[in-house]
From TrEMBL:
Signal peptide: 1-22
Keywords, comma-separated and alphabetical: Lyase, Metal-binding, Signal, Zinc
Family: Belongs to the alpha-carbonic anhydrase family.
Protein name: Carbonic anhydrase
InterPro entries in the record: CA_dom, CA_dom_sf, Carbonic_anhydrase_a-class, Carbonic_anhydrase_a-class_CS
Region entry Disordered, spans: 44-112
Membrane-spanning ranges: none
EC number: 4.2.1.1
């Protein structure tokens, strides 16, 4: 439905209108009994960052499980102050990575404690951490054929008539008591929660519904880098990953399923200083500020909403890839939204003030440039699903509409106007007086 062709336009219009009305604000009740996925930490438990049990069982569910039993204070000290804490940390899995995932078996972790710790190019340095080119030494899947991230070249992406728009189902819901679990795992800052009505990623030709598990970020030391995906040669200063797991699968299942996860990537660019700051980004960065040091904390954050992290326009690039952190499972259906969100320099600086280790306040310890290098595409096809706004605008130049008229067709509240214009233009396009 995405890359519709003109002769299917009328049908498309009908379908999109229906989808649009059923989309993000849908109040349908989600499954309420999968608390394990986004379990609320038990503040009374003494177990912090428990070792992971086996390689394929560390997805967001285990991350959540880790969070579920972590004492915030114990976690702060256990997570990253020694070699064993990190590589084997259950919190890892959710972390930084494309999705919170699996870690090696306890036996492996124990015997390779030191060397199996992984890090990023510019901050792994002398810390006995594996740089990305060595992740595969201990996480073999990291050298597989369908790794992420990749560079997306927009003019090479295939507009796919069969792709459906994504639906962010129950994304307007908040966790119980607006309590979020805020996890700084030393690789990224991550948020998860226990929902009475669980948010899901639906439609998008995914073939299944995917339950929200957690979201986390990758960022750079400067504005010129930080995102994992690169679009037309451009790196963005920040990339958000909203991780979802197939609702029918356990964490272990998902790691073995080539489509076990679906992650939505949202790119951020620096806001023009003359623009009105986005209040939602202020709420987000205030929440990020809570995780300056490695910890797992349960915090009440009333202003943090998933729906605010999704751009108004939802054209997306689709490809099959992997988690972007060890163990790099090749189990991810990626959806990179074309439209970036904006954040001010000051807000970006909040991410740049996070630390990798508890109790270390030096600049060398700052968590920066936590993005994996671009991976080989290996013949993979990137498909593009333009939303209705992009579809309408793509046609305007072809029909010679003036620039001022084009500007008057605004997204959002004026979607219906845009649609009407699109409709009329299409009719004009096919009228006998026009030659196609
Ligand atoms: C900021 O946005 C305004 C209005 O959109 C534009 O006129 C101005 O050139 C922009 N400034 C920068 C530095 O991009
Ligand atoms: C929410 O979190 C607060 C701590 O911020 C805690 O005291 C409260 O019990 C939590 N409520 C629920 C329902 O989890």
């Amino acid at each position: 439905m995405c890359g519709m062709v003109l002769h299917t336009f009328f049908l498309l219009t009908t379908v999109l209108i229906h989808r649009s009305s059923a989309a993000p604000a849908d109040a349908h009740h989600g499954s309420a009994h999968d608390a394990a996925v986004t379990g609320v930490p038990d503040r009374h438990s003494a177990v912090a960052f428990p070792p992971t049990d086996h390689p394929v069982d560390h997805n967001s569910a285990s991350a959540a499980a880790a969070a579920g039993h972590a004492d915030p204070h114990a976690a702060a000290s256990a997570g990253h102050t020694d070699n064993s804490g990190h590589g084997a940390s259950a919190a890892n899995k959710g972390h930084g990575g494309g999705a919170a995932l699996p870690q090696p078996s306890p036996a492996t972790a124990a015997s390779h404690d030191k060397i199996e710790q992984w890090g990023y190019e510019t901050i792994a340095s002398s810390k006995d951490e594996l740089t990305p080119d060595h992740w595969s030494d201990f996480y073999p899947k990291c050298s597989g054929p369908r790794q992420s991230p990749i560079e997306i070249v927009s003019h090479s992406a295939m507009i796919d008539n069969t792709l459906e728009p994504l639906e962010f189902f129950s994304y307007d819901r908040q966790p119980v008591a607006t309590n979020w679990t805020v996890t700084n795992n030393g690789h990224a800052i991550q948020f998860s929660g226990k929902f009475a009505h669980e948010p899901e990623l639906r439609h998008g030709s995914l073939g299944a519904n995917y339950r929200f598990a957690q979201f986390h970020f990758h960022w750079g030391k400067s504005d010129a880098r930080g995102s994992e995906h690169v679009v037309d040669g451009k790196r963005f200063p920040l990339e958000l990953h909203l991780v979802h797991r197939k609702i029918t699968e356990t964490a272990g299942d998902a790691g073995r399923d080539s489509t076990g996860y679906s992650i939505v990537g949202v790119l951020f660019e620096v806001a023009n200083e003359t623009e009105t700051p986005n209040i939602h980004m202020q709420a987000l960065t205030e929440a990020v500020q809570l995780g300056i040091y490695p910890t797992v904390q349960l915090r009440t954050i009333p202003n943090l909403n998933l729906i605010d992290l999704i751009p108004e326009h939802q054209s997306y690039y689709r490809y099959l890839g992997s988690l972007t952190t060890p163990p790099c499972h090749e189990s991810v259906v990626w959806n990179i939204l074309k439209t970036p969100l904006k954040m001010t320099e000051a807000q970006l600086n909040v991410f740049r003030s996070l630390h990798r280790h508890a109790g270390i306040t030096t600049d060398e310890d700052l968590l920066l440039d936590n993005y994996r290098p671009i991976q080989k595409q290996n013949g993979r096809v990137v498909r593009f699903c333009p939303d209705k706004y992009d579809q309408a605008h793509a046609l305007i130049p072809d029909i010679g509409l003036s620039r001022s008229a084009a500007r008057n067709i605004k997204p959002g509240a004026s979607e219906h106007v845009s649609f009407a214009a699109f409709l009329l233009l299409t009719i004009a396009y096919f009228s006998p007086t026009k030659s196609v």
